[in-house]
Specification:
- The protein is an alpha+beta fold.
- It has 2 domains: 217 residues, 2-Layer Sandwich (Cytochrome Bc1 Complex, Chain A, domain 1); 220 residues, Cytochrome Bc1 Complex, Chain A, domain 1 (2-Layer Sandwich).
- The chain has 19 helices and 13 strands.
- The chain has a 7-stranded mixed beta sheet, with helices on both faces. The protein has a 6-stranded mixed beta sheet with strand order 10-11-9-12-8-13, sandwiched between helices.
- Strand 5 and strand 6 form a beta hairpin.
- Helix 9 crosses helix 16.
Length: 516
């Protein structure tokens, strides 16, 4: 039986329809829009990569989006759609794969055969497969280690948090996993996991009922397999603070990520309270958070410092949270962007010529201590009110475009919600400071966490020994900076330098041995 739920707001109409037990449709009707957006979300992410073939789901998605159809090559498609200003792309995360298509409504019927061809009859040509696989192999072997130590440390943290589970490996896979993928693997994975039984259709814009009916009927032609999806994946629980230091030649600083399992996702109402606490501590790329204020603004140690209550996709490039990365297993993390190593400080300041390690231990202590203060002291009423007011405006920026609106509606369905942004705003409106402080004590802690640090090989050994012994770590300032420090900062530095971290295990890993 067909069930339709309708919510009306301004000139947009949100419809969530269940066409059958296997086909779900999220509609965002915008009658005045001249743009059509189609999102096809398959409940099939990197968790379904077979053991020994890690990276297969991304390879399939890339080959669909960057290959051709039975009737057109990729080059022919790109030349065909260029005059229409149409576009399409794929994205893969742990739990889902999404194909996004955008086109002006005047060209929809001309563009649609491309949509249909890519999804239903991808060509899977050998030459396209070779190109895609080569690029993916290069990423897992070289690019991730060379392009951004920040992303490197973040993905290394996930490897540590989820070690032994199907969340462990990067979405792009492992070196051995990608190398083992064959074209036959691609075809089999497409047939078994890109099916009509794990698909949610999302559509936005000024489309017609006839077009939607056509889209639904065509997508019903996908394979009828009912895939078996991994369930119950959870982050590992650390025993105290466990640290992995990745030793990398010629690293310019120490990039740090901390993480601990978080027993809540967007599906829980307490998530709104944690949003307030997280924003107060360190909203992504915002300069008012406590971490940013203490580490960057006050001490000029790095470019920025932030905290997270869920995966933040492409944090180096995205200023706002992105849709399309819903996850059922969650964790809290703090991102300390690279701080200076001893080798660099010694070259800049003669007065620091005798230091053995740079700023990493001090910065880590400072960040964990700030989280500790938040847990033990809580937010003040004033800080709560200001942060909540900011958030109620800020989360609306997540959905500035029809594509982002549709994306967050698809995510909402995944989490068992109807409209995540609207529902979080309503929860924020009712929150009290006591609600936030209770949630912080319930979900956050500092005694058990994983930490990954990507640093120079000259720093790895001394830093590991200092963390193992919990030795004091006085902040290394130049003389000029030290002379101008306010007494309050000097006093706080002395407390931070001896703040005890519950370190139980420290391991140094050579960069060549990661993501194998």
């Amino acid at each position: 039986m067909k069930k339709i739920i309708i919510a009306i707001f301004s000139t947009c109409f949100l419809l969530i329809s269940y066409v059958s037990m296997s086909q779900q449709v999220i509609e965002l009707k915008q009658p005045l829009s001249n743009k059509i957006i189609i999102k096809l979300m398959f409940r099939n992410g990197s968790v379904t990569d077979p053991v020994g073939k890690e990276g297969l789901t991304e390879a399939v998605a890339d080959l669909i989006a960057e290959g051709g159809t039975k009737t057109m090559t990729n080059r022919q498609i790109r030349e065909f759609i260029f005059p229409m200003a149409a576009n399409y792309s794929s994205s893969v995360d742990k739990e889902v794969t999404i194909f996004t298509f955008t086109v002006h409504k005047d060209f929809l019927q001309k563009f649609y055969p491309v949509v249909k061809g890519l999804i239903l009859t991808p060509s899977f040509k050998e030459e396209d497969f070779t190109r895609i696989k080569s690029n993916q192999q290069n990423y897992v072997d070289e690019i991730i280690r060379a392009s951004s130590d920040e992303d490197y440390s973040k993905l290394a943290l996930e490897d540590l948090l989820f070690r032994g589970t199907r969340y462990q490996h990067m979405v792009s896979g492992t070196s051995a996993g990608v190398a083992a993928i064959t074209l036959d693997d691609i075809k089999a994975h497409y047939k078994n996991f890109f099916t009509k039984n794990n698909l949610t259709i999302g559509i936005a814009g000024g489309y017609t009922p006839d077009f939607l009916a056509q889209l639904k009927n065509d997508m019903a032609q996908l394979p009828a397999t009912t895939p078996t999806l991994p369930t119950g994946i959870k982050a590992n629980t650390p025993n105290g603070i466990e640290v992995e230091i990745i030793s990398k030649p010629d690293a310019l600083g120490s990039a740090i990520f901390t993480g601990a399992p978080l027993a809540i996702t967007r599906s829980g109402n307490d998530f709104a309270a944690l949003m307030v606490a997280n924003s107060y501590l360190g909203e992504h790329r915002k300069s008012y958070g406590k971490l940013y204020d203490k580490i960057r603004s006050t001490r000029s140690m790095n470019y920025g410092d932030y905290s997270y209550i869920e995966w933040y996709d492409n944090g180096g490039g995205n200023m706002l949270p992105q849709s399309g990365v819903p996850r059922l297993s969650n964790y809290f993390s703090m991102w300390i962007r690279p701080v200076q190593i001893a080798e660099g400080l010694k070259k800049q300041y003669e007065e620091l010529s005798d230091i053995e390690i740079g700023h990493a231990q001090f910065a880590l202590r400072l960040a964990v201590r700030e989280l500790d203060n938040l847990i033990n002291k809580g937010l003040s009423q004033k800080d709560f009110e200001v942060t909540r007011q900011f958030l109620r405006s800020y989360i609306k920026l997540y959905i500035q475009t029809p594509e982002s609106q549709l994306g967050f509606l698809l995510d909402s369905k995944y989490y068992g919600r109807k409209d995540y942004i609207k529902e979080m705003d309503a929860l924020l409106a009712k929150l009290t400071v006591d609600d936030v402080n209770r949630a912080v004590k319930k979900y956050l802690q500092t005694q058990n966490m994983f930490i990954t640090i990507v640093t120079d090989d000259s720093e790895a050994g001394p830093l590991a020994r200092a963390l193992e012994k919990n030795t004091p770590s006085p902040m290394s300032y130049s003389n000029l900076v030290r002379e101008g420090l306010p007494k309050a900062v000097v006093d706080e530095d002395a407390e931070i330098a001896k703040y005890k971290l519950n370190v139980k295990k420290v391991k140094v890993v050579d960069t060549k041995d990661t993501f194998k």
